[in-house]
Amino acid sequence: MAWDITFRFDTTPEAMRTARKAIYAMAQGVGASDVDVHDIELAVGEALGNAHHHAYHDSAGVLDVTVSFHGTHLTIAVRDYAGKVRSLRALPETLPTPSEGRGLYVIRTVMDEVTLGRAADGPGVVLRMVKRVHWRPAVP
User: In this structure, are strands 113-118 and 125-132 parallel, antiparallel, or unpaired?
Assistant: First the structure.
């Protein structure tokens, strides 16, 4: 089984919560373990919040989220469209101070692969996260 879904939404709290819950349901739908499902929801929540805060300075903006499932990997890419040039932070190896922000550290801790880079086809930044899915035990 393989599929890709992309959706676009405004950075309102309601829309971001709906997107986070939709991705949670997708992870459950492919049979991911409860731990993986919660890790994915946590990472997505951090990614959406970071994009809203850093790309749009907590103002209105647009995000695209692409969720892909291929075999054993669930990939989530969060893209903003902020046209401002801004520096990209390196993904932290150790726990940053609270003033430095801990969102990327949390994402990196719960996901298997994380990359952060400028969008290749226009303005904005893309945060790509991959989780190798561990399957829920079958219920007899």
Answer: antiparallel
Confidence bin at 83 (pLDDT 50/70/90): confident
Rg of the chain in Å (alpha carbons): 15
Residue 137 within a domain: no
Residue 58: exposure state from Cβ atoms within 10 A (0-12, 13-18, ≥19)? exposed
* Most confident region among 10-24, 98-112, 115-129 by mean pLDDT: 10-24
Is-contact 68 38, C-beta < 8 A?
Answer: no
Q: Residue 38 belongs to what domain range?
A: 2-132
Q: At 73, phi and psi to the nearest 5?
A: -120, 130
Indicate whether 52 belongs to any domain.
yes
pLDDT tens, position by position, 28-78: 999 999 999 999 999 999 999 999 988 898 899 999 999 999 989 999 999
Residue 126 is part of a domain; what is its CATH number?
3.30.565.10
- pLDDT of res. 88: 62
What is the tally of structural domains in the chain? 1
How far is 104 from 114, CA to CA, in rounded Å?
9
Helices (H) and strands (E) counted in the chain, each on its own, are: 4, 5
